[in-house]
Amino acid sequence: MSISMYRLTVPMFQRGLASLKTYLDKAEAYAKEKNIDPVILVAARLAPDMLPFSGQYQRATDSAKFTLARLTGTDAPKFEDNEKTLDDLRERLAKTEAYLASFSTQALEGTETRQITLPGRNNTVLSGDEYVATFALPNFYFHVTTAHAILRNQGAPVGKRDYLG
Amino acid sequence: MSISMYRLTVPMFQRGLASLKTYLDKAEAYAKEKNIDPVILVAARLAPDMLPFSGQYQRATDSAKFTLARLTGTDAPKFEDNEKTLDDLRERLAKTEAYLASFSTQALEGTETRQITLPGRNNTVLSGDEYVATFALPNFYFHVTTAHAILRNQGAPVGKRDYLG
Question: Which bin fits B11, alpha (ψ -120 to 50), beta or left (φ > 0)?
């Protein structure tokens, strides 16, 4: 007994994407309250050489979709990385959610032993379970949390409950 | 076949604590380079009503130690939450690492079905595996990433590789 590969991927990502969706609603309400253009928040960063809020959404959704694609040896849908508005980001989340929902528990069975090549890391090869534990999950949460951090840094009232769900 | 409760806790936390240790070294070097007192970085925040850098270390280490204590039904060591310097934070990491190292794979066996009560959440009760997946891991990575975000926001040159290890 332990935790299945399905449980450690699809529902984990679904929950994180739900938090990212909540942040969009809170960003929209905050922009309205402060009478600012929401695209300012979409383009906000913690540092000039760090990805903006939209980039955190792009990397979080990529992390989710590529994890499933690599584990199952299938192709993930392509997204253009051209989101500029809150609604663009909502659409990206929806497309990622639809892709995640296409995986069954059965589709992930046996993926713990599949050999996964990490791109851009000297082509390091990891077993599926190690890939999820050492790369996929920490990377996914990094981008969800950084989106949270950017909004907080801009003054928007998001809180830990929005993150944990 | 799937991922064990041990694999999803002790090594995950050890890896995150190693990143937190790297951040302290990078913060120290950055403070020296900029000729600023490192305690300024220890007290830095992303927002006035958010925990400072030191608070992220306190919550990350608490998350690690309480996860193990709750899963195994034992008591975690008490820490005072009075860290003011980089060395204070190093000491806290070392104490947490020593505690984590005291758990064997065997000590976690069967903990997936243990009933865990989440404090401060209307005493919600979760099985050990759901507790790790929905609460412990996301919460731990939240605080490691927020520590990263605070340093980046202060201009310190930490990067994704420092986080992923």
Answer: alpha
Long-range own/partner contacts, residues B45-52 (CB < 8 A, 24 or more apart): B45/B150, B46/A46, B46/A149, B46/A152, B46/A153, B46/B146, B46/B149, B46/B150, B46/B153, B47/A152, B47/A153, B47/A155, B50/A152, B50/B146, B51/B146, B52/B150
Look-up of token digits 């007994």: A1
**Beta strands of A10-146 (E only): which ranges?**
115-117, 125-127
- Examine the pLDDT at B161 and tell me if it is beyond 70: yes
| pLDDT computed for residue A15 by the predictor | 97
Nearest chain A residue to B19 by CA distance is A138
- Enumerate the residues of chain B whose CB falls inside 8 A of the CB of residue A131: none
**Closest C-alpha to A2, from B114, B10, B129, B104:** B129
B125-160 residue pLDDT tens: 999 999 999 999 999 999 999 999 999 999 999 999
Measure CB to CB from residue A133 to each of B12, B50, B110 and give the nearest one: B12
Q: Measured between CB atoms, which of B16, B138, B149 is closest to A164? A: B138
Gap between the Cα atoms of A65 and A7, Å rounded = 15
Please give the pLDDT value at position B103.
97
For range B87-112, the mean pLDDT: 97
Interchain proximity A152–B50, CB inside 8 Å: yes
ipTM of the complex: 0.96
Residue B109 falls in which region: left (phi positive, over 0), alpha (psi -120 to 50) or beta: beta
Query: Residue A16's closest chain B neighbor by CA?
Result: B138
